[in-house]
Design brief:
CATH superfamily of the largest domain: RlpA-like domain
Strand order of the largest sheet: 3-7-4-6-5-8
Number of helices: 4
CATH architecture of the largest domain: Beta Barrel
CATH class of the largest domain: Mainly Beta
Number of strands: 8
CATH topology of the largest domain: Barwin-like endoglucanases
Strand content: 15-25%
Distance between the termini: 77 Å
Shape: globular
Largest sheet: 6 strands, mixed, barrel
Number of domains: 2
Radius of gyration: 21 Å
Length: 192
């Protein structure tokens, strides 16, 4: 009788080990979607360029945004599962997660995005990679690359909660024509 209990114990342990291994293969080891802890991270090098993550509450830049989506199922730099349909983005140095307001300079459309990944790593003019869902919400998926203004924001908790659950934040009013003309001129002049 004791031998049988030991055999069952071995079978149970083997089954337990197999289940643990399979859960790892199934992607069950992603970090939960959360705003804590906020991670700044150490400097890192990609293709010979050093990036130094830092908190920058005054971040407000003009440049270009692109979108990515083929990485479905991969882990983001924040440890979360990449979900292409969610309203997320990749940035080279902002803390993970961060929230940014993205304005398409061609249309004035403005959205809030949750930054949970690193990138883009292709030239200094590209300042943000949007998920497919964010690109669709911004109305730039067909173009693939659009001029944008990106600035750090601190949205209300209900917008943060919506973004943490894959939903868009509340709609923001579009930017006015005069402000858009000003920002386009600054981008053309190479300004911040």
């Amino acid at each position: 009788m004791v031998a049988r209990r030991q055999d069952c114990g071995r079978i149970g342990a083997a089954t337990w080990l197999a289940l643990l291994l399979l859960s790892g293969c199934a992607g069950g080891n992603y970090r939960p979607v959360s705003d804590t802890p906020v991670r700044v991270g150490p400097p890192y090098v990609v293709r010979g360029t050093t990036y130094v993550p830092a908190a920058d509450p005054s971040y407000d830049f003009l440049g270009y945004a692109t979108w990515y989506g083929a990485e479905s199922g991969n882990r983001t730099a924040n440890g979360e599962k990449f979900r292409p349909g969610w309203i997320t983005a990749a940035h080279t140095t902002l803390p993970l997660p961060s929230y940014v307001e993205v304005t398409a300079l061609e249309t004035g459309r403005t959205i809030v995005v949750r930054v949970n990944d690193r990138g883009p790593f292709a030239g200094s003019a590209r300042i943000l990679d949007l998920s497919k869902g964010a690109a669709e919400q911004l109305g730039m998926r067909v173009q693939g690359r659009v001029p944008v203004r990106v600035r750090v924001v601190n949205p209300p908790e209900d917008d943060r909660d919506r973004l943490r659950h894959g939903k868009p934040a509340r709609e923001r009013p579009p930017m006015g024509d005069a402000a858009l003309r000003n920002l386009r001129a600054q981008l053309a002049a190479g300004g911040r």
